[in-house]
Amino acid sequence: MTKHIYIYSPASAVRDRAAFKRGVARLKALGYEIEIDEAALSVHQRFAGDDAVRLAAISRAAASHADVALIARGGYGLTRILDAIPYKAIAKAIEHGTEFVGLSDFTALQSALFAKTGAVTWAGPAVGEDFGAEEGADDIMEDCFGDFTSGQGEGTGWRVPVRDAAAMASPLKSIHGATLWGGNLCVLTSLLGTPYFPAVDKGVLFVEDVNEHPYRIERMLDQLRHAGVLARQKAIVLGQFTGMRKIPGYDRGFDLQAVVTRLRGLLKIPVLTGLPFGHVPTKVMLPVGAKVEMAADGRDVFLVWGHRHHRDHAH
């Protein structure tokens, strides 16, 4: 059965229309049935339509009966409407088989939805930056997305970078039945102290970010640490931190590695690096809010969530 994907824009306006068109064409070429929300290309200030337009788009995505509701792009726009999002309708749509997928700013909706309803969403690609990439969509990203839409995706694995392997001297003990949660570090941190921040204990927290200086990354991690969030987890997993803005001649060796080393010294739980997720072409699919198992064999880390029942439903 052909999988039906509903594309909508809940955050920033689609600026790169060529990438959006390429992404839609690529998804069609992969055999998906594509439905584009009527406001997907709307523009109001920096947003894909004003707040009411984007809320209506989210409601249409929830009512679409599609197999996947996929964001056109991230950017900024969801945190400002968190108090008006139809969480129950989205949770019901998920229960009936519509999987919500996205990244970056989408972390706000994912976190809030999980905090409010316990519903599971997926950290994964966006239409423009991933399927519409100018150099062509990444093979691994497409394979992971294909496994996910066909109900085959049961886990992921990666190798911890060599420079970090030594720091993993204490082997990661297998983790069972921990809630996987997280996403974009900046967006997640902005939710702290609100009803939209998930209260997860003994979970596996993954974070990534883009265009941030190492000191800003450290400051956000420290905010989560000082709030007691990090120590309550079973593991912290760092994805990709790209476009880092260092200050030449000023930082003197203060880089992401220094941030990670300090964090490891402050926490009694494993801090793993190298997760293939973030603002990078090669990204895996991750079920936000699902129970996972995690284990390591040397530098190889395995994250498994088992078979998530993917219902076929009548349109």
The arrangement of helices and strands along the chain is EHEHEHEHEHHEHEHEHEHEEEE
Strand order of the largest sheet: 6-13-12-7-8-9-10
Distance between the termini: 12 Å
Q: Report low-confidence residues grouped into runs of 5 or more.
A: 309-315
| Structural class determined from secondary elements | alpha/beta
The number of helices is: 10
What gross morphology would you assign? globular
- Give the overall pLDDT as a whole number: 94
Rg, Å, rounded: 19 Å
State the share of residues found in helices, binned by percent. Answer: 25-40%
Q: What is the beta-strand fraction?
A: 15-25%
| Biggest pleated sheet | 7 strands, mixed
**How many beta-strand segments?**
13
Written description of the protein model:
This protein is of the alpha/beta class and 315 residues long. It is built from 10 helices and 13 strands. The strands form 2 sheets. Strands 6-13-12-7-8-9-10 form a 7-stranded mixed beta sheet. Helix 2 packs parallel to helix 3, helix 3 (87-95) crosses helix 4 and helix 9 runs parallel beside helix 10 (256-266).
Short characterization:
The protein is 30% helix and 21% strand. The protein has 315 residues and is of the alpha/beta class. The strands form 2 sheets. It has a 7-stranded mixed beta sheet.
Q: In terms of topology, how is this protein built?
A:
Elements: E1 4-8, H1 17-29, E2 33-36, H2 51-62, E3 68-71, H3 87-95, E4 99-102, H4 106-117, E5 121-123, H5 127-131, H6 139-149, E6 155-159, H7 162-165, E7 175-184, H8 185-190, E8 204-210, H9 214-226, E9 235-242, H10 256-266, E10 271-272, E11 286-288, E12 291-297, E13 300-304
Parallel strand pairs: 1-2, 1-3, 3-4, 4-5, 7-8, 8-9, 9-10
Antiparallel strand pairs: 5-11, 6-13, 7-12, 12-13
